[in-house]
Amino acid sequence: MGDDEYLRSATEHNDRAAARVELARDVRRFIDTRANVAATRRTIFHDRVPYDSRLWADFVDAFGASSLNIPEAYGGQGYGLEELAVLLAESGRTLHPSPLFSSATLATFVLLALEGAAGTEEILAKLAVNELTATLAFVEPGGNWDPHRISMVAQGSGPDVELNGEKIAVLDESADVILVIVRHAGGDGGLHVALASRDEAGLERRTLESFDPTRPVHSLRFSRVRARLLGDPQADYIEAIASALDRATVGLAIEMVAGARQCVGSAVSYASTRQQFGRSIGSYQAIKHLCADMLVEVELAQAIVDRATAALVSSNERSAAIASLAKLQASRAYTFAALNAVHIHGAMGFTWEHDAHLYVRRAKASDLFLGGTSYHRQRVIEDAHASKGDAHWYTPFGIDEGVSSREMALTRVGARAWLSDHAAPLTERNEMVIGLIREIGSVDEALTFRAWSKTKFDGGWAGITWPTRFGGRGGSMVDLLAWKSEVSQFDVLEGACPAGESMVGPILLEHGSDEQKERFLANILRGEHLWAQLFSEPEAGSDLASLRTTATWRDDHWVIKGQKIWSSFAQFADFGLLLARSEFGELRHRGITCFAIDLRAPGVTIRPIIQMNEQDSFCEVFLDDVVISDENRIGPRSEGWKVAMTTVTAERVELGLRCGVNLERLLGLAATPFAGSSLGDDFQDRIAELIERVESLRALGSSMVKKVIDGKSTGIEGSIAKLVGAELMNAAANLGLDMQGSLGLLSGEAALEGGVWQNAYLSSPARRIGGGTDEIQRNIIAERGLGLPRG
Q1: Helices 756-763 + 717-738 axis angle, to 10
Q2: In terms of Cα–Cα distance, which of 377, 329, 425, 388 is closest to 666?
Q3: Burial of residue 236, with CB atoms counted within 10 A of its CB: 0-12 exposed, 13-18 middle, 19 or more buried
Q4: To bridge 338 with a disulfide, which of 204, 256, 359, 579 should be the other Cys (CB 3.0-4.6 Å)?
Q5: Within 13 Å, how many C-alpha atoms sit on residue 147's CB side?
Q6: pLDDT, tens only, 452-478
Q7: 510 an active-site residue?
Q8: Catalytic one among 90, 501, 651, 664?
Q9: pLDDT tens digits, residue range 302-311?
């Protein structure tokens, strides 16, 4: 794509995005005023009609709801799924009953998938102007949504056919026409769409009591019903119909995410105002963390649904699998949020009068419609095996198709070319099974890391975002993400000792003196100075304000006394980034000062700690009257807390980058024929669930990349990535061991694959602790993301 073409495309994309924002604002105003939950209750329980036809007509007049995604050639507006998504989301938020999903989404997608086949133009034109509504009759007794399982046959040799059989789970009993999915006896048995009128003789409509009264379903029995095949009677439209169902599945997932978000908002609003024991219940950690978990599921669902929408728009070859992934995570989020909204509301939430049960019903009904969990997980497994070898690694900051920019693309091309000349690509032998970044575990590896840092520095790829005057590349965060995406495919110790470049560097750039910048920054990038972080203490982990290490000003220097713990790689480091209390009293966050400390200075004792995985990357550091010059003080005296916040945020992002699952290795293990293991349905289901979570988190990472490209803050996504990423790493290691059966009892070289899965299992708990525990992350999500009060 040339520069001019790229700019035109980007401009058009931005214009449409801005138009969608404006459309969403106007639709929300309409929905909140005329189609809110109270209106839904009135329509369903008082008026006892499927939907308010006058309100639907007004919705069509105001926003072209019936024609939004119909091409202009048929009288429609010519937009696509992204614009339709705005209407679906707002309608799903209030459970607004209308033909929007049954006719303007599900049926219309099927008609559009036939690509102008005979008979479709007239129907599309009438749908566009709301002259009629349509619905889809697909599922047969047995309830399977697989197009290959359709057995109902249309009898006849030409377009005019006769239908016999039964369809269930059909939406909108009042629809004017029915698109019936059948096989054609007069053709080659392929899948077809037959058009039948609702008033046709021989059509028996059976109204059923629906689990979700806001979206009722009914059954249709066809007895010699006359119908007309759309398109060529000799063709097979199975791929077109399957594609239409995928688009409708994503449309349903869009609705589900909006409904789930509404449940979270309702629960948080109630928790913020409901008083118990003199406090709002939202200040209690149990409720706060439950709300945080609800938001985590919704944000993951939003990310994968956005990714699925983009995949369909761009005709991504994996769009079918991504549609299933979107449905799975949207179902998980909606059912979880709806049920827990009832729980948080207590007994009131369990009443018929409260709206919460309507969302519980819609959530589960949507979960079952267009294929339940088992159906979509099977599709995910099939895709994983079909695409095996395409992408070895998952990372929260993976760059998906459609989220890159020209700047990022250029950086990736340059990085890939340089890396190809200076590093070896990853192979199956040296790929890890969890965790994307290998850590320093020996003196030799420390020397290797120093050498790699020097190679990057000399090649101009060190300190991507640092100023060039300090040896950096002078690039942007977009360039940094591009570099990380490329370097993760090579066998190098990138980021194996992250404190220097990822934590100390940002602090010095923002708070350091000119002399400190000149003394430390370039040496960090060259690998001449390795750093460790000296924050945590035996009595001060996540609560750094409780630290007890003291910094006493004596004559013309500082004297440091105390103990630090959990300092990664301190035994290999040259310097430490230290927080110590320099003022005393009830100061909490004030009175803390930040220092650079020489870890070889007299009075410094470093003792590695053997961890549960038998490694010793953690250390405890004893500081016995260590003398530090004031030149090593970073930032103002007693303002070390503010200084530290720079690195705490950077650490959370860095740890998010380190969370990963090697799906390639996991699928390879699943295919290994070893004794004592039987990979039945349970294992397949667990693999599919892991893939679902992995892909959802990867989509969240892509949305973060988009924000970086657009110059926006990523907000709480870093905490979500760390929280869920750590959970996934543990789940993957656990699954890897379970699949080995009795062989999982072995360890080391005696174990399968040299014991990598055993080591991964024992290493994964650390990811839930370092950089802020799961509980700390949930507090951050609840307080900063949902506005819940502190405890």
Answers
A1: 140
A2: 388
A3: middle
A4: 359
A5: 20
A6: 999 999 999 999 999 999 999 999 888
A7: no
A8: 651
A9: 999 999 998 8
